[in-house]
Amino acid sequence: MWANIIHPEPEQRARIHKLHADAIEYADRLGMEYILTHTGGRDTDDKDKPHPMNHSRQTWEMSVAATRKILADTAGSRVKLDSLAQTLFFEGQSWQ
Questions:
Q1: 70 domain residue, yes or no
Q2: Per-residue CA distances from 54 to 38, 59, 70, 73 (Å)
Q3: Does residue 74 sit within a domain?
Q4: Which domain holds residue 26?
Q5: Residues in Cβ contact with 2 at an 8 Å cutoff, skipping those fewer than 6 apart
Q6: How many domains does the chain have?
Q7: Of 68, 83, 84, 85, which is most buried with the most CB atoms under 10 A?
């Protein structure tokens, strides 16, 4: 799943969290071991686009909260969620 779990718009973010929960449910039914996802970023149009807030403490906390919500919504699933924080760490910037 390569959707923006920290999308800045709450409605979009809620829709994306549901997509992730559904993907985990489907993966569980198929007997898959894990799914890979991406935390996304703060830009409203492109999850991979650099954004000045991507390296903030607030964005890190949003990523953790989003991951915890998806895990809580899929409690009991055997599927592991591997969430890559690429946008947060690989843009060549430091924490703000």
A1: yes
A2: 13, 6, 20, 25
A3: yes
A4: 10-89
A5: 37, 38, 47
A6: 1
A7: 83
